[in-house]
Structures are given as structure tokens and as C-alpha cells.
Design brief:
Layout lengths: L2 E9 L8 E6 L2 H10 L9 E7 L35 E15 L5 E17 L6 E6 L8 H22 L14 H11 L4 H8 L4 H21 L7 H4 L6
Parallel strand pairs: 1-3
Antiparallel strand pairs: 1-6, 2-5, 3-4, 4-5, 5-6
Length: 246
């Protein structure tokens, strides 16, 4: 078992290998993390781990609120995640490589990172200025018939895109080339589909590429059938595709 210890960045979203993650970092715990990452030489990867939040707050409360207006806001690296942060996060996450970390005049950071490798969360350490975690790196196994499944998923995904664009009265750019590597297809489609965090987390946790593709094929066919029966779709992406302030 290969383990690694990395800074931990919990989010209300799921990061997949190969996908780009833009971040607007303003909380002090994550600013401290970025300052530490900037100490890494430019020719080495600036890595941190992203995990989806199961129970907790992406941004810690900064002022008294409901139900007790006199309660003091939490401070520290584990603020918003309870006494045992490990229980607040999903068990599988993804390593992110920060290609760009730009500090703004006000002290925040603009970060552009890319998902690289799936990892299993083993333990969380809240003793420093930001969370760190011990992680087990997970290999991506192809599974049975991954190639054939990828072809079917791509066909279903194109139909899904067309139906979604039509229901939202938007134009669809059809010139973009889609990949043919089964694992890349599985992660791209998982990230592109409009689904909630638990569903995307389930796809990330699939035991192999083929299993993920089979799940995606069912989801795509089901979603396409639903969209086909609706004249239009509400702007539900505003609630189901959250934008991270961090």
C-alpha cells in the first residue's frame, strides 16, 4: 500500500482525475496552505488532496447566526467539520496538482489545479494551520469490456448533450472531440453530467473503469428519457452545481 501525506482541501464538489479545478481562496486556513505550497520548487508538483464534504460547511461561519445569535464562530483548520473531521468527509478523494497559484493584493489566492490520482482518506490531522491527511493512492483498473462500454457511453453522452441543450434552448457545440481512452471517458462524463454530489461521489468510488461506465450508461439513458418528456428545464444547475468560493 502506497501512502502519502498531503494538505487537505474539503469542498462541496467532487474532483475527478484529469479535470480542471479553479479555486478562489480567501479563508486563512487555505491561504496558509497555498503559502506552504508556494515553497515547493516550480519544477515539482504542488499537490494537495480534494475530498467532498459529507457533513459540514465548505466555508466556516464567520459571524454569530441562527439558532443562537450569541454563539461565537469557529476558528482553526477543522472549523465547520465537527470534533472528528474524518467523519465529515467522503472516504475517497482526488489529488490535485496546482499549476497556477497567484496571490491577490488582499492576501487571497487564485488557484488553477488539475485532478491527477484517486486516493483513499486514512486519517486527518488538524494540529497545524491547515488540515493534512494520510492518503492511500488507488490504481485505476480497467475492468471487463471497458472499451466497448466507453463507446456506448460516448454515444449516450452525445444524445444527452443534445437533449439538454434543446431543453435549455441553448446551442450545442458539436465540433469538440471527445477522448477514446475508457478511463478518461468515464471521468469526463462523470464530471460533465448534471448530478448531485452523492451521485458523483459514487462514480468516483467505482471499483474500476468498466463499473463506472456501466453506471454512467444507466444514468445517461435515464436522464435523456426524462429530458425528452419535458418542454424545458429550470435553472437547477444553480443549486446542483455549486461554485466554490475557496
Amino acid at each position: 500500500m502506497t501512502t502519502v501525506r498531503l494538505p487537505l482541501f474539503p469542498l462541496n464538489t467532487v474532483l475527478f482525475p484529469g479535470l480542471v479545478l479553479p479555486l478562489n481562496v480567501f479563508e486563512e486556513r487555505y491561504r496558509a496552505m497555498m503559502r506552504e505550497l508556494l515553497k515547493t520548487p516550480e519544477d515539482e508538483p504542488r499537490r494537495f488532496a480534494v475530498v467532498a464534504i459529507r457533513d459540514g460547511y465548505e466555508v466556516a461561519p464567520s459571524a454569530p447566526g441562527m439558532p443562537d445569535p450569541t454563539a461565537q464562530p469557529e476558528r482553526g483548520p477543522a472549523a465547520g467539520f465537527g470534533p472528528d473531521p474524518l467523519k465529515s468527509f467522503h472516504a475517497l478523494g482526488c489529488v490535485a496538482d496546482a499549476a497556477t497559484i497567484r496571490e491577490r493584493a488582499g492576501g487571497g489566492f487564485e488557484v488553477l489545479a488539475t485532478g491527477t490520482t484517486r486516493v483513499r482518506l486514512l486519517s486527518v490531522d488538524a494540529s497545524g494551520p491547515f488540515l493534512t491527511a494520510e492518503l492511500e493512492e488507488l490504481a485505476e483498473e480497467p475492468g471487463d469490456e471497458a472499451g466497448a462500454l466507453a463507446e456506448g457511453v460516448l454515444r449516450a453522452f452525445r444524445q444527452y448533450q443534445k437533449r439538454l441543450a434543446g431543453a435549455r434552448e441553448r446551442s450545442l457545440a458539436t465540433s469538440a472531440e471527445l477522448p477514446d481512452d475508457p478511463s478518461v471517458v468515464s471521468y469526463l462524463v462523470a464530471a460533465a453530467m448534471v448530478h448531485d454530489t452523492p451521485t458523483k461521489q459514487r462514480l468516483l468510488q467505482a471499483p474500476d473503469t468498466a463499473s463506472r461506465l456501466r453506471d454512467e450508461l444507466k444514468l445517461l439513458r435515464g436522464e435523456t428519457a426524462i429530458i425528452r418528456t419535458l418542454p424545458s428545464l429550470p435553472a437547477f444547475e444553480l443549486t446542483r452545481a455549486p461554485t466554490s468560493l475557496n
